[in-house]
Amino acid sequence: MKVLIIEDDENIVESLSLSLRMRWPDVVVSSTGMGEEGLQLVETFSPDIVILDLGLPDINGFEVLRQVRLFSDVPVIILSVLGDEDDIVRGLEMDADDYIVKPFKKMEFLARVKSLVRRKNVPVDLTVYERGDYKVFLSLHHLYYKENKVTLTKSECLIFYKLIQNANSVVTYSGIARELWGDEYPGSIEAIRVYVQRLRKKIETVTGNNAVIETKSNVGYIFNLQE
Predict the structure, then answer these.
(1) pTM of the entire predicted model
(2) Domains (ranges, CATH) in the chain?
């Protein structure tokens, strides 16, 4: 596995690199504190995962993400002190795969990385799930409602898969967190709410139904499905 860290704080880079090597001894880590160089490394280093800070000295991390998505679908985890919902939504809407607010626990970080590695390695023959009028392609992150296609992010796709597998039953925040990251961490509920809010809007555009995903306050969600 090759990991690219775009972060200008050398202490954080050292800490992340050490954590990665302790978890995956064969990991190859490359790092830079500059966004422009980071863009070049995405092309030349061909990482399996990018860890991206937003507060870079030359160009904003959001701009780095925007440019990366012009030519690559490499998984990107944003690390940032910016923890407002607007910042998280912006990062996810720009197709970041995950968003972690600083400070964070090392075990949380490793779990998020592990989750993205696991998603990349989903066997192709196990990635299509169909129920009712819905069909989801996990490897492509595509959802079809009847003949209407919706493109999802990796996280949205996994959440939808979890919800539709358990249609008409409550799926808890903990259950969704385990699906995404393998465990529940501080801040995970807020991130899940952002993911589900975006997923709900996308489904509404093709179904015309604003009650497909129902919120159960302080518990989780129900995917209402008529079969």
Answers:
(1) 0.70
(2) 2-120 (3.40.50.2300), 124-223 (1.10.10.10)
